[in-house]
């Protein structure tokens, strides 16, 4: 589902589909000639080329014409596309199973026409069970050739005719396929499906047998017993039920990279083995549960006592924390369409990770600024999303009276607008006094908090009797990994939120409201939804630029390389777009023309990397160009904006390249753009700077006259406007970001006071400042809110983040420097400080 | 305010016009005195001009006080005010002497003049200490902190020391209250502590934040906890406490004895304890220097207020008895 760039696929423990070195002229169906040992499995792996990703193949499946690409990008366990070092997707051949999925599994929960046991969409196919057999007819020089093939590994070819067990077009073929598949299943049942497991939920072998109407096997069970391993307190291993499909092995080694499970013994006694055939409890197994979740039979099952203990522990926690809600069991969860595609055993394993809550009208589901670890699936009811914190700008105003006459100031909250971007609600934007209504049709909210541990963006309360499921991170992770769930979530997002988010993109600022809507409508059905894992680059500096991205969840780090070093240009939260510079430079050399050779046409000027779990909207280059053709105003505005950004970056880069000093680098001063530096030879420690700062900000100083020393200078604790402003990361409403022109840190008026930026600042230069809470009265003016307790009226205080604003709210001349009587305080960049010290 | 070549532009911009103004006034005064054959007094034309200029200077000098109080107002950067304060203040003395015709006169002008001279002397003293002490502090007190935070930093140092010993040696079994205090500390136990390391950076030593890994020294548990209990009063109160480490030399001997009583593993813990004592010693010196740097100001302001009051009285009486 997502685009993931893998810098070095060889290192990433992903099975390689590259079969360079194999005989090139072997026939694809002669698997014995080129079967290869991949992690203990003898499988057929064929070479696919990047060009095949664009080649169409037409075939017929069960009488229906199907067109698919000859190769598909290789994906990891989360559906992320794997890319090679050059950013090109690693291709793998499209299999009959893939083509059948594309043709027949259109809606979540649709049964796949081909039953499969050893194959799972997130695991590389190995084709060992042969349950997924289909009849494939290909044209050869000698005429049509009909053959039963395993669909999970058999690649599609042009003109191929495929019949599955469901085929109505060729019922005889369907019967042949069914007979073959049925025989395999009966053989497996005879040896590996005890009667007790016939109705066991989660046993896929039993489910397939039921689906095919097989009541009992015609074959005698084998006489040799392979035994059980009950050493683990979490997982019970019944080797007799194991069909050696290798799903546990691939789950352990390829998905989790634990490399614990392998094979032991030979022939009838062959079985899975932990490490060097140790009992599971004594092996290096980390009890992640992936093997049991992957197992299609009862060979690996969670111990009942483990699940009961887990549920009891969560119940106790809920009781202790006085939380309401009921734990939802796996049996209940599989009935919900959203969870229907998730393996039963996974839901069992995470049995205590889903809690049902019933909310009455007015009940608060979550509060802005709170930390949480859950997302919410809305099952019924209606919810109101709003910002409880009054929108107000922190400003300096005359104190009034005599004090005001003598220049006295007070820091106040003033009525202000501004659109808060709610990271937790699909990056929806909220205007002042605006409220968003969500219903069960919106399905989910709170993914940002759940996946990335950020504070809640907004307060959500129920407006009517409502029912929700609170899910923990691992369940959400699985929902995003599973194709069925992912499709539901993406469809809902496209239907409910995408258009609004596109219309509010910053790149459309130059357009009027009607044009924005038109532009959003133009793009809505053209965009892709992607997800990127933490640390994975979205694109690299110098890459060919052909897409524009909008962030809808998580944070993206924008960095630029200079020499051997790297600097952070920005952290982009939900609602922000990126990639326009590289894209614009490729459109008729728009930027290159005006800037000479500074921009390589069509190449990325910076590297964008996912800082945490990131969900993106991708607008393809051709659609972006179409958009610019349709809206010429947008084109001019974007070119101007891109030029501004490039000019600013170049200036900053020139400054950086001149710097070389270990001490200077050690102390992080090279990152600073605006230091408050005190010359300790001149400073008499009179504290006039601190007092002036306090006088300018209503008695609360935004600097502390202590900090790092560099030569004879004291670098006081005051916002440095760092080049790597980590304070920007995580703001749940995108209220803190760079000032567009000068790279200085700016806190917007819609800060909700969660304090995350203050925690993030490594230098302690962002402070939480209490202001009287205000609400808008009937006349539209802000009035203080008071709390009446025992007859005493006290102002309600709410916290806001404040940082040095270089006294821009007065006249832009920092009071600390202005008030220093000894000419000891200076504002300078790290580079200027370096120059002074180097003299 | 520092008087050095780096600030020549600031000072000369004020000092030269001030010197010219003073010289012009004094030239008038000398010419009139020569004509009169004796130093003329405040009643003469030039004497009166000198007096008015000196009086206006005193009024201007007092203006620095409200200027500093009204920091928010953009009435020229304060450094210009202070430079003018210094040079005009110094220039006012010869003008005042010329104004009084080298006579102290009655009790009022005499008191006025004495206080005025004391005021200028206190100002000059302030100027001297401001030129000397910051440099001394920069070079000799790398652990310097904000003056009114000394007590807090000292308390924090003691907490750090306890945390370090807890990590390195385990609980202090000899302390009765240890069991009450230590669980809290134990909860945050790591093998790394934060230290304000003194390090060389460029030409000057400075304090930067560093962390240090604490070694295991369980063998010396009792010795080290006892040592901490002995130096703890010093770490908290400095010279006000009587401990074996008040004096640098005695401290050095005391720590030598402690080193010889401890194993190899305990040596780095002792290094950190010694560093903490040294930091506290620097705080004491800083506190002393801080008083030297700032208490004169109270005297200077007091004298300035007295001079201003006497100036007003002097003007009133002069006009009354003209």
Question: How would you explain this protein's 3D organization?
Answer:
By secondary structure, chain A is of the alpha+beta class. In chain A, 26% of the residues lie in helices and 26% in strands. Chain A has 24 helices and 49 strands. In chain A, a hairpin with a 2-residue loop joins strand 4 (56-61) and strand 5. The two termini of chain A are 56 Å apart. With 322 residues, chain B is mostly helical. Chain B is built from 9 helices and 2 strands; from the N terminus they run H-H-H-H-H-H-E-E-H-H-H. In chain B, strands 1-2 form a two-stranded antiparallel sheet. Chain B is elongated. Mean pLDDT of chain B is 84; it is low at 178-189 and 197-208. The chains are: A alpha+beta (839), B mainly alpha (322).
SSE string of chain B, helices as H and strands as E: HHHHHHEEHHH
The proportion of strand residues of chain B reads 5-15%
Largest sheet of chain B: 2 strands, antiparallel
Distance between the termini of chain A: 56 Å
Domain count of chain B: 2
Largest sheet composition of chain A: 5 strands, mixed
CATH third-tier fold name of one domain in chain A: Ubiquitin-like (UB roll)
Radius of gyration of chain A: 31 Å
Query: Share of helix among residues of chain B?
Result: 55-70%
Oligomer: heterodimer
As a percent range, the share of helical residues of chain A equals 25-40%
Number of strands of chain A: 49
Major sheet: arrangement of strands of chain B: 1-2
């Amino acid at each position: 589902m997502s685009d993931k760039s893998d810098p070095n696929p060889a290192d990433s423990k992903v099975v390689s589909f590259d079969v360079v070195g194999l005989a090139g002229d072997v026939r694809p169906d002669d698997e014995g000639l080129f079967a290869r040992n991949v992690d203990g499995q003898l499988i057929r792996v064929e070479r696919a080329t990047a060009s095949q990703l664009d080649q169409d193949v037409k075939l017929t499946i069960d009488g229906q014409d199907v067109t698919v690409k000859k190769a598909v990008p290789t994906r990891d366990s989360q559906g992320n596309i794997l890319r090679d070092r050059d950013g090109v997707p690693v291709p793998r051949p499209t299999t009959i199973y893939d083509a059948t999925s594309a043709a027949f599994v259109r809606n979540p929960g649709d049964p796949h026409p081909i039953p499969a046991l050893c194959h799972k969409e997130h695991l590389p196919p190995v084709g060992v069970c042969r349950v997924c057999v289909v009849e494939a007819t290909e044209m050869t020089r000698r005429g049509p050739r009909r053959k039963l093939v395993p669909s999970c590994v058999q690649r599609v070819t042009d003109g191929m005719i495929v019949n599955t067990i469901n085929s109505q077009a060729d019922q005889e073929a369907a019967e042949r396929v069914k007979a073959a598949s049925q025989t395999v299943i009966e053989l497996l049942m005879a040896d590996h499906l005890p009667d007790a497991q016939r109705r066991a939920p989660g046993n896929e072998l039993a489910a397939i047998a039921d689906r095919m109407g097989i009541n009992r096997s015609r074959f005698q069970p084998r006489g040799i017993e392979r035994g059980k391993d009950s050493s683990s307190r979490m997982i019970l291993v019944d080797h007799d039920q194991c069909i050696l499909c290798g799903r546990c092995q691939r789950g352990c080694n390829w998905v989790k990279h634990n490399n614990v499970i392998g094979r032991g013994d030979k022939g009838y006694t062959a079985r899975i083995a932990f490490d060097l055939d140790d009992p599971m409890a004594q092996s290096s197994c980390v009890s992640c549960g992936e093997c049991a979740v992957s197992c299609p039979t009862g060979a690996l099952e969670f111990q009942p006592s483990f699940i009961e203990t887990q549920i009891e522990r969560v119940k106790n926690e809920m009781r202790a924390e006085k939380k309401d809600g009921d734990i939802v069991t796996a049996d209940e969860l599989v009935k919900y369409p959203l969870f229907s595609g998730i393996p039963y055993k996974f839901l069992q394993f995470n049995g205590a990770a889903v809690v049902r809550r019933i909310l009455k009208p007015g009940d608060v589901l979550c509060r802005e600024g709170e930390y949480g670890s859950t997302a919410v699936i809305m099952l019924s009811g209606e919810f109101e999303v709003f910002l409880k914190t009054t929108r107000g700008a922190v400003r300096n105003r005359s104190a009034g009276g005599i004090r005001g006459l003598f220049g006295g100031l007070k820091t106040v909250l003033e009525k202000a607008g501004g659109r808060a971007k709610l990271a937790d609600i699909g990056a929806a934007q909220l205007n002042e006094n605006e409220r968003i209504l969500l219903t069960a049709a919106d399905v989910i909210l709170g993914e940002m908090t759940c996946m990335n541990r950020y504070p809640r963006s907004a307060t959500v309360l129920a407006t009517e009797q409502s029912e929700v499921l609170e899910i923990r991170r691992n369940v959400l992770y699985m929902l995003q990994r599973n194709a069925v769930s992912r499709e539901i979530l993406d469809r809902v997002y496209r239907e409910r939120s995408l258009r609004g988010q596109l219309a509010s993109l910053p790149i459309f600022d130059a357009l009027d409201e009607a044009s924005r809507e038109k532009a959003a409508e133009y793009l809505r059905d053209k965009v892709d939804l992607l997800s990127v894992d933490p640390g994975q680059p979205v694109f690299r500096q110098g890459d060919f630029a052909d897409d524009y991205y909008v962030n809808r969840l998580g944070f993206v780090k924008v960095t630029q390389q200079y020499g051997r070093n790297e600097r952070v240009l920005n952290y982009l939260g939900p609602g922000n777009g990126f990639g326009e510079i590289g894209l614009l430079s490729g459109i008729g050399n728009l930027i290159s023309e005006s800037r000479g050779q500074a921009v390589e046409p069509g190449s990325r000027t910076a590297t964008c990397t996912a800082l945490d779990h990131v969900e993106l909207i991708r607008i393809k280059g051709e659609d972006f160009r179409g958009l610019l053709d349709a809206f010429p105003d947008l084109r001019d505005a974007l070119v101007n904006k891109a030029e501004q950004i490039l000019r600013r970056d170049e200036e900053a880069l020139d400054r950086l390249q001149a710097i070389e000093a270990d001490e200077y680098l050690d102390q992080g001063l090279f990152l600073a753009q605006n230091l408050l530096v005190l010359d300790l030879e001149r400073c008499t420690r009179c504290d006039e700077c601190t007092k002036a700062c306090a006088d300018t900000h209503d008695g609360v100083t935004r600097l502390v006259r202590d900090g790092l020393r560099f030569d004879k200078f004291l670098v006081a604790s005051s916002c440095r406007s760092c080049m790597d402003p980590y304070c920007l990361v995580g703001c749940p409403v995108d209220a803190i970001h760079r000032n567009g022109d000068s790279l200085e840190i700016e806190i917007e008026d819609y800060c909700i006071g969660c304090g995350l930026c203050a925690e993030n600042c490594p230098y302690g230069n962002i402070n939480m400042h209490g202001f009287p809470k205000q609400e808008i009265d009937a006349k539209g003016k802000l009035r203080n809110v008071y709390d009446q307790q025992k007859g005493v009226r006290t102002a309600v205080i709410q916290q806001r983040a404040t940082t040095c604003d270089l006294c821009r709210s007065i006249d832009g001349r920092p009071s600390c420097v202005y008030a220093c009587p000894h000419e000891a305080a200076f504002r300078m960049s790290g580079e200027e400080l370096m120059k002074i010290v180097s003299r | 305010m520092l008087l050095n070549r780096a600030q020549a532009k600031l000072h000369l911009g004020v000092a030269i016009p001030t010197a010219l103004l003073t010289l012009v006034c004094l030239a008038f005064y000398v010419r009139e005195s020569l004509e009169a054959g004796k130093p003329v007094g405040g009643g003469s034309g030039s004497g009166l001009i000198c007096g008015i200029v000196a009086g206006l200077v005193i009024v201007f000098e007092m203006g620095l006080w409200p200027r500093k109080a009204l920091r928010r107002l953009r009435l020229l950067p304060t450094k210009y005010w202070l430079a003018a304060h210094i040079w005009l203040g110094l220039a006012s003395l010869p003008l005042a002497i010329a104004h009084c015709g080298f006579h102290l006169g009655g009790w009022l002008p005499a008191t006025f003049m004495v206080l005025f001279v004391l005021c200028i002397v206190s100002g000059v003293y302030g100027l001297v200490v401001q030129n000397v002490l910051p440099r001394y502090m920069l070079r000799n007190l790398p652990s310097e902190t904000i003056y009114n935070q000394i007590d807090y930093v000292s308390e924090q140092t003691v907490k750090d020391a306890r945390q370090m010993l807890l990590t390195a040696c385990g609980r202090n079994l000899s302390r009765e209250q240890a069991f009450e205090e230590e669980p809290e500390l134990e909860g945050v136990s790591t093998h790394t502590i934060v230290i304000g390391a003194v390090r060389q950076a460029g030409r000057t030593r400075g304090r930067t934040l560093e962390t240090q890994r604490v070694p295991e020294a369980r063998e010396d548990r009792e010795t080290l906890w006892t040592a901490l209990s002995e130096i703890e009063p010093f770490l908290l109160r400095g010279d006000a406490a009587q401990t074996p480490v008040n004096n640098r030399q005695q401290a050095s001997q005391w720590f030598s004895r402690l080193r010889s009583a401890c194993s190899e593993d305990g040596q780095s813990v002792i290094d950190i304890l010694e560093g903490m004592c040294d930091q506290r010693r620097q705080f004491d010196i800083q506190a002393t220097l801080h008083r030297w740097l700032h208490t004169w100001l109270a005297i200077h302001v007091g004298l300035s207020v007295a001079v201003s009051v006497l100036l007003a009285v002097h003007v009133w009486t002069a006009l009354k008895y003209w």
